Amino acid sequence: MLWPDFVATWPLLNPPDSSIVGARQVFSPWQLPLVNTLILITSSITLTIAHEALKEGYRKTCRNWLAGTVLLGVCFILIQGVEYYEAYAHYGITLEAGIFGATFFILTGFHGVHVIIGTLILATMLVRIIKGHFADENHFGFEASCWYWHFVDVVWVGLFIFVYVL
């Protein structure tokens, strides 16, 4: 065996290879990660309200709730940026900090990119709503963007559980 004294634990803060410096500590899931989880769950609710309003022909209501959803997406991205700064500056979590650091940044980073894409898509839908591009019964582009956003939200709940809680 390469490392006979190695004990497999997660998160792996002390890599068996002494040339790799592990993270000093991990995030408490009940601070920024929980805030971001609540933001994304709330954004799914606001998006659903916007979608239902569009289906009922309440364009102004749809516009307002969709604007709130876009704002929540931006808040998530900003808080994720704060979390990345905290991870690097205070917790020693970097891409070079062993498997935990690499896993943390890969998983949350890919998700963050998808949130950015989703926020841009929803912002585009907001502009289209303002311009009157969708009808009550004909709004597939809007509906597809809702599917995307809800999928991104569900993925985050899984990440929250497996990256932060467990």
Task: Walk me through this protein's architecture.
It is a single chain. With about 170 residues, the chain is mainly alpha-helical. Helix 2 (about 60-90) packs antiparallel against helix 3 (about 100-130). The protein has helices at about 30-55, 60-90, 100-130, 140-165. The chain contains four helices and no strands. The protein has one domain: Four Helix Bundle (Hemerythrin (Met), subunit A), CATH 1.20.120. The two termini are about 30 Å apart. Pfam families: COX3.
**At CATH's second level, what is the architecture?**
Up-down Bundle
Return residue spans where pLDDT drops below 50 for at least 5 consecutive residues. Answer: none
CATH homologous superfamily placement: Cytochrome c oxidase, subunit III, four-helix bundle
Total number of helical segments?
4
Order of helices and strands: HHHH
Q: Multimeric state of these chains?
A: single chain
Distance between the termini: 28 Å
Tally of individual domains: 1
Overall mean confidence score, pLDDT: 91
Radius of gyration: 20 Å
CATH topology: Four Helix Bundle (Hemerythrin (Met), subunit A)
What's the CATH class, please?
Mainly Alpha
The biggest sheet amounts to: none
Family: Belongs to the cytochrome c oxidase subunit 3 family.
Keywords: Membrane, Translocase, Transmembrane, Transmembrane helix
Protein name: cytochrome-c oxidase
Subcellular location: Cell membrane; Membrane
